[in-house]
Design a protein that fits this description.
The protein is α/β, with parallel strands linked by helices. The chain has 5 domains: about 10-115, no CATH class; about 115-215, Winged helix-like DNA-binding domain superfamily/Winged helix DNA-binding domain (Arc Repressor Mutant, subunit A, Orthogonal Bundle), CATH 1.10.10.10; about 230-390, ph1033 like fold (Roll); about 405-590, Rossmann fold (3-Layer(aba) Sandwich), CATH 3.40.50.300; about 600-689, no CATH class. A hairpin with a 2-residue loop joins strand 8 and strand 9 (about 320-325). It comes from Streptosporangium subroseum.
Length: about 700
């Protein structure tokens, strides 16, 4: 009697288990390109059975790469520079779970915990990467700050190995027990600590170099070395002034040549006060503040009163404008309007009339400025700042769209080549429309692609949705009623819409990509909404006169910046693509997302493999679409890509009944076809069986 054919989910589990066993035999690690051939040699039946499990382009090797995330999140496997290694935790897992079911169940539990606590893990990684060389943190304190289970956190650090992972120790300064380190790992761990000046004695490092949990959030602006000698090199500091209790002080700072902190409750303290003195005063003067708030204020006041010195560089930003100056003289306490600037330091601003652009800053500095600290030590960027504000420092940067990454393709469950083709189309002409039936992921892909193109800068991306009542005035610019200055009446004033606001931002940072997403672009009256802007979509370097004059009060004709990309989405179920006029077709590239074509046809199967669900949903969707004769009404996979509908016994049937069948009822309205009989879940299941 022939044994039943294994499903792809079962085969994937066997592959992952065998991968761990192969890696266990190669402590030196294995290039990922060589791993699958070794597994295939051990499990020759898998490749043959895989062919009978589906008709998509997935392969066992793709499944290995997609599904191995659980091994990493559990701390069992390290992926580094194209090479995979089994960790000490992974070896223990193999011994503890010698069979496929229990091994995969334990791996899945690790992945599920990570998936439910992503924010906490990201917080933990940021803190780990900020721990200075020569210092260490207790895993227990790090877990508390990030809201995580200590054992799970240590395991994840073993799998992902972020910068500084070895500085996370147990409460006594030793290698954490939760890492289950073997002799080789323990030796490597201690060598890394020794290389940073942490002398290991009897397996422990000195407690004097420990950063306590309460101080973790401050390590970015605290000075762990405490080196404040008179000959110390020049430092650089960020002091924020663009939003102090709801108001920007930058104009006052530039005009009156100073920078400041509110310090509204702080008693007067002399320059050079010690951190202990400042901490004690803050504890009294801000007695009703939270512990973390007092810790933050202590660090800021200590930096402002003591660590900053005459001649240091001061930096502040007003939106995308960066101002740099030299600190001059000592800090002083002064009265201020609204108590917004009580603690001040004199500054000679060097570029008050010609601010730097945010895009001119090194990427590493830009990332630091994205944090929420009001005072930030930027000493590592002194040379960059001096070069930028020196003679001839202005740098012209060319706008360029970044290539897509393998990580983005994996996240979106599509082929990297297909995504790259979208980017190439945008490089040729920066307008593209994703079109297809409902549920094919058009908006989802557009949003993720936009975030990638803008290099993760959310402020560079704007989404609008067209509808029949949407107009040029809503989209670009129009007169709107506003209150008169005396508050006694109403006047009409031209106000910018989302496109004009994004255009203004793109002009200020011409080297950065900006992306406008127009969802359901076909639902609006395109000629009415775009108006004279139609011309600029095709001729970016040309200029036109606008319907309203406020876009440029000098009367300069308007242009669309080259670094503004437009992504549109279009639903074909209402025949909308046929309604797009020739002028619009000529100005946009059109890319189809269809359930029966690449890349959409493989998305659901890849998603089911990733989440370890049966492939029945993909087979049902294939059967459903085979019964739908109209190509534009095929159903996309997005309706079936929510974990909850598989965890609830009735969830899948509920979605089928309430979301998919109503679409088909509307399509077949009046033609006498019994939708439930033709497309019902039980009907399709009987057909598949």
């Amino acid at each position: 009697m022939t044994a039943p054919m294994a499903s792809r989910t079962e085969l994937t589990r066997k592959i992952l288990f065998e991968a761990a066993q192969v890696l266990a035999e190669h402590p030196e690690g294995i290039p990922v390109s060589e791993l699958w051939p070794l597994i295939n040699a051990r499990l020759p039946e898998v490749a043959e059975q895989w062919k009978h499990g589906g008709v998509d382009s997935n392969t066992p090797e793709i499944a290995l790469r997609f599904k191995s995330g659980g091994l990493v999140k559990s701390g069992w496997v390290i992926k580094s520079h194209g090479r995979w290694y089994l960790t000490a935790l992974g070896r223990i897992a193999l011994n503890k779970h010698p069979g496929v079911p229990s091994f995969i169940a334990a791996s899945h539990a690790g992945y599920q915990y990570w998936d439910q606590h992503k924010t906490g893990f990201e917080t933990a990684k940021r803190l780990v990467e900020a721990v200075p060389e020569g210092s260490w943190v207790a895993a227990r304190d790090l877990a508390t700050q990030a809201g995580l289970d200590e054992t799970r956190l240590v395991a994840l650090l073993q799998g992902e190995r972020p910068e500084g992972w070895h500085r996370i120790l147990d409460a006594d300064g030793g290698v954490p027990d939760a890492a289950h380190a073997d002799e080789e790992l323990r030796t490597k761990w201690q060598r890394l600590l020794e290389d940073e000046g942490l002398h290991v004695v009897l397996g422990r490092v000195p407690p004097a170099r420990q950063i306590l949990g309460a101080d973790l959030q401050q390590i970015v602006i605290d000075d762990p070395d405490g080196g404040e000698g008179p000959e110390r090199p020049r430092r650089a500091w960020l002091v924020r002034g663009s939003n102090v209790r709801g108001e920007s002080l930058i104009g006052d700072w530039l005009a009156d040549r100073y920078c400041s902190l509110p310090a509204s409750k702080l008693r007067e303290l002399p320059a050079g006060s010690s951190q202990d003195v400042i901490r004690a005063v803050v504890d009294e003067d801000y007695a009703h503040g939270s512990y973390n708030d007092k810790l933050k204020k202590t660090a800021e006041f200590y930096a402002f009163l003591t660590r900053m010195r005459d001649g240091d560089l001061a930096l502040s930003n007003d939106g995308g404008k960066i101002y740099v100056g030299h600190l001059r003289g000592e800090p002083a306490f002064r009265a201020s309007v609204g108590n917004r600037a009580n603690l001040q330091r004199p500054v000679t601003w060097l570029n008050a009339d010609a601010p730097l652009d945010f895009g001119d800053l090194p990427d590493e500095m830009s990332a630091k400025l994205a944090t929420q600290h009001d005072v930030l030590d930027l000493t590592e960027f002194v040379d960059d700042l001096e070069r930028l504000i020196g003679p001839g420092s202005a740098r012209a940067r060319e706008f360029a769209l970044p290539d897509v990454t393998a990580e983005l393709a994996v996240e979106l469950l599509v082929d990297q080549e297909w995504l790259q083709e979208c980017v190439e189309l945008l490089r040729d002409r920066p307008q593209l429309i994703l079109y297809g039936p409902p549920g094919t992921g058009k908006t989802y892909i557009a949003q993720h692609l936009a975030q990638h193109l803008s290099m993760g800068k959310r402020e560079n991306v704007k989404l609008v949705q067209f509808h029949p009542a949407y107009s040029y005035e809503d989209f670009f610019e129009g007169f709107r009623p506003v209150q008169t200055p005396d508050g006694q009446g109403v006047m009409f004033k031209p106000l910018p819409g989302p496109l004009l606001r994004l255009v203004d931002a793109a002009r200020q940072r011409p080297e950065e990509p900006f992306v406008l997403i127009i969802d359901e672009i076909n639902r609006g009256n395109l000629a009415k909404i775009f108006g004279e802007l139609y011309f600029l979509l095709e001729y970016r370097k040309k200029a036109i006169d606008l319907l309203y004059s406020s876009a440029d009060e000098t009367g300069t004709p308007f242009t669309l910046p080259e670094n503004l990309v437009i992504l549109g989405t279009m639903n074909t179920a209402d025949r909308s693509i046929a309604l797009v006029d020739a002028a619009m077709r000529r100005r946009f590239a059109f890319v189809e997302l269809h359930p029966e074509e690449t890349p959409t046809r493989d998305v659901l199967r890849r998603w089911l493999v990733r989440h370890e669900f049966s492939d029945e949903a993909a087979r049902l969707l294939d059967e459903l679409n085979a019964r739908i004769e109209d190509r534009d009404f095929k159903i996309g996979p997005s309706y079936l890509m929510r974990p909850g509908i598989y965890q609830d016994p009735k969830g899948f049937a509920r979605v089928w009944r309430t979301q998919i069948l109503p679409l088909l009822e509307e399509h077949h309205y009046g033609d006498g076809i019994g939708v439930a009989e033709r497309y019902g879940l039980e009907t399709l299941r009987r057909r598949l069986s």
